Amino acid sequence: MTTHELAVIAGDGIGPEVMTQALKVLDAAEQRFGFSTTRTEYDLGGRRYRTTGEVLSDDTLVELDAVDAILLGAVGTPDVPPGVLERGLLLKLRFAFDQYVNLRPVKLLAGVPTPIAGLTPDRCDMVIVRENTEGMYAGAGGLLFDGTAHEVATQESINTRHGVERVVRDAFVRAEARRGHLTMVHKTNVLNFAGDLWMRTFTEVGEADFPDVERDYVHADAMCLYMVTTPERFDVVVTDNLFGDIITDLGAAVQGGLGLAASGNIDPTGEHPSMFEPVHGSAPDIAGKGWANPVAAVLSLGLCLRHLGEVDAADAVEDAAATLLTELGAMAGPTMGGSTDELGDRIAEHVADPSAT
Ligand code: NAD
Ligand code: IPM
Ligand code: MN
């Protein structure tokens, strides 16, 4: 029997609430499809930081590097200054493990109420490939004369040919395997240096190695319009780290809410573990209420299973989540037709026995 070694970082706020559901669904998938996992839980996040002052030790990083995949709930809490956990834990893992592809599908599932009037599932099925190790996130810049009337803050966007080319290539491969259409999103009209590097790379790689993939380009501001008015225009989208962060929250809204949006931080070389997490954060406003939608965490588990080669299990998990959403009909209101726990139970039951209702 195949065994996959997993690290589990439930994290803060609703992170542990939705992670519990994803692990329940994983139990059902293991039983039905005959594989197993070892799950090492890592107590990282706000509580750990407040009690020990530690965010992520080098030893833990080495341990995490040895697993097959990481499941993460969410990190960040109002009682820790912004950036400490986001940069020190989440971004550190993405960077240290060279997870240069941030894969964020935006798919409207049947039965899910979208805020876009008249939008139907056949018009909304795209995959956003967000560059995940460079750009404004690289941490270049600093404060000078801070605290004085003359203080200066710089925050530079780092874009390397190597970094842009590898993510662009990954997106072309994904487009080839889907509907053969790739859109690059940037602000080449203003960010002329970085935009130029991105555009030349996109065009050169496409012309040389992916002549059958149709290329399109959209400015990031216009993207926010088109994602709402004509999402059917997009198949695979490749974009820079910060634009990708912003447009994937918009994508989450279009597909019915952050509680439904999954993501994978992927090292396509397989040298390091990839990490799977919902697009949403720790949602301090609803933490502890039992209202958090676990579907994003469950669909992130689905991406993880696919990455690990458990394709049948991944299909079953995605089908179970989709079936639940169809059954729920309208999820309007904070409880979505069931508590976090009830929804997790129902998805797990569907995975165990798809004929059950
Ligand atoms: P958020 O994603 O936590 O919440 C935004 C809104 O969406 C809130 O109203 C929240 O209630 C709602 N929401 C989020 N997930 C939901 C779910 N599963 N079900 C129902 N509603 C849901 O974003 P925020 O409030 O801007 O950030 C809160 C904290 O999370 C911050 O510290 C931020 O840095 C961090 N964060 C972490 C991650 C991550 O760990 N991957 C991602 C985004 C934000
Ligand atoms: C996300 C989050 C993170 C990001 C934060 C928490 C560092 O918003 O995963 O989308 O900006 O990438
Ligand atoms: Mn984000």
Entry keywords:
alpha/beta, Isopropylmalate Dehydrogenase, 2 domains, ten-stranded mixed beta sheet, two-stranded antiparallel ribbon, 11 helices, 22% strand, binds nicotinamide-adenine-dinucleotide, binds manganese (II) ion
Q: Would you give an account of this structure?
A:
The protein is of the alpha/beta class and 357 residues long. The chain folds into two domains: 1-99 and 263-357, Isopropylmalate Dehydrogenase (3-Layer(aba) Sandwich), CATH 3.40.718.10; 115-254, Isopropylmalate Dehydrogenase (3-Layer(aba) Sandwich). It has helices at residues 15-33, 46-52, 58-65, 84-96, 161-177, 192-209, 220-229, 241-254, 295-307, 311-328, 340-352; strands at 3-11, 36-41, 69-74, 101-107, 125-131, 135-144, 152-158, 181-186, 214-219, 236-239, 262-266, 274-278. The chain has a ten-stranded mixed β-sheet, sandwiched between helices. A hairpin with a 7-residue loop joins strand 11 and strand 12 (274-278). 3-isopropylmalic acid is lined by residues 76, 86, 90-91, 245, 279, 281.
Topology:
Blueprint: E1 3-11, H1 15-33, E2 36-41, H2 46-52, H3 58-65, E3 69-74, H4 84-96, E4 101-107, E5 125-131, E6 135-144, E7 152-158, H5 161-177, E8 181-186, H6 192-209, E9 214-219, H7 220-229, E10 236-239, H8 241-254, E11 262-266, E12 274-278, H9 295-307, H10 311-328, H11 340-352
Bound molecules: nicotinamide-adenine-dinucleotide (NAD), 3-isopropylmalic acid and manganese (II) ion (MN).
